[in-house]
Amino acid sequence: MVNSSESPKILLVKLSSLGDVLHNLPIVWDIRARLPHAHIDWVVEEGYVHLLKPLLSRDGFKGIDRIIPFGLRRWKKSLFSLNSWKQFFAFKDELQEVSYDVIIETQGLLKSALVCALAKKSADVIVAGLANATEFSGYEPISRAFYNQLVQVPFHCHAVDRSRYVTCSALDWELIDRAEKAQFYPITYLESIGAQPVATLEKPYILFFHSTARAAKRWDNINWIFLGKKLSSLGYQIVLPWGSADEKAISEELAMQISGSLVPNAFSIEEAFSVIANSVLVVGVDTGLTHLSAVLNKPTVEIYCDSPRWKTEGYWSEKIRNVGDIQNPPTTEEVTKAALDLLA
Q: What is the share, in percent, of the chain residues with pLDDT greater than 70?
C-alpha cells in the first residue's frame, strides 16, 4: 500500500496517440495532489513528447520528473538497422535508471505491456493495467500477462475515467469521480502560450479542424461551408488547418466558398499550442487537435459523427460543447448554436 507519507517511484506508460496521451494527463495531477513527493516518469512515443513538456518539474513546480521517449514507430521502419537496435538499448538503459514501485499502464496494448516488462522494478512492485476492453477502444488481451494487478473498468468508460480507474487501483485509493475536475496543464503555461501571437494569423480567428484519420468521422463539407459563411459574416476569419495533401485539398475547397478564410502552412504539434491558444473558438471533429483545444480550456465545439460521444467528450469545462454522437451527426443548426453560445 502507498500512503501520503511515502515517496514512491511511479512509471506511467501511455505511448500514443495524441488524444489518448492528452486524456491521460489528469492522473499526473491526481498523483501530485495525494503524493506530492512521488517520483513520476512517463514513457511516451517520441512524436508526442511535446505534449508532456509543460508538465516537467522545474522552478518549484512538481509535475513529471522524467519523460522517456520511445521510438518504436521509427525503429520498426528499419528493424534490421544496427542504429535502430543501438537506440532501442539506449532507451532500455534510460528506462532502467530508476527502480519503480508502481507502474501504471493505461493503454492495454502489447507494446505498452512490453515497456512494463522492460522496466526495472522494486521487490514489491505493483504493475497495474486493464483487465478488459472498453467499447470502441483498442485492446490486446495478451497484455494482461504482464500485470500483477488487473483493473476491471466499465464497458462504457470515458478515456480520462479509465486512466483514473487504473491509477486509483494501483495506489489503493477510492475512485476519483468527476466531481474532482480533470486538470491537464498548469494555469501559468496556458497564460503564457495565449500571450504568444501567431505571426501569420490575424485575430479574431476561428479554427476548423475538419479532417480526421477515419473518413466516417468527418462532418460533410457542405456543413462546414454553411457554418463558415455564418461565422465569417460576423467578422471572424476562418482558418482551415491540414495535415496531409488530401486534407489540404479539402481545406482549399472549403476556403474557396468561405469569404476571407485562410489555409495556413502546415504546423507541428508544438506550434499547434499557440495557434489554438490565440483563437477565439475551435470547431472540430473527434480528432487529436480538437481534444488539444478542449484540454487547453479554449472555447471548443466537439463534433461527433461516427464515434461515441461518451468516450472522449470534454466534460471538465463550461467552454466545451459536445454535439452529435455515433452514427448521428449534428445538424448545422446544432453546431451553429453551440458556436454562437461560446462566442457570446
A: 99
Domain ranges of the chain: 9-184, 189-343
Task: Give 79-104 pLDDT, tens digit per residue.
Answer: 888 889 999 999 999 999 999 999 99
The CA distance from 247 to 252, in Å, is 9
Measure the CA–CA gap between 268 and 262, rounded to whole angstroms: 17
What fold is seen in the domain 9-184? Rossmann fold (3.40.50)
Q: Peptide bond before 204: cis, by omega within 30 degrees of 0?
A: yes
Does the 189-343 domain belong in CATH 3.40.430.10? no
d(CA 210, CA 303): 9
CA distances from 187 to 9, 41, 194, 257 (A): 26, 21, 11, 38
Contacts 24+ apart (CB under 8 A), 215-220: 216/305, 216/306, 217/285, 217/286, 217/287, 217/305, 217/306, 217/307, 218/285, 218/305, 219/285, 219/303, 219/305, 219/329, 219/330, 219/335, 220/329
Q: Do domains 9-184 and 189-343 have the same CATH topology?
A: yes
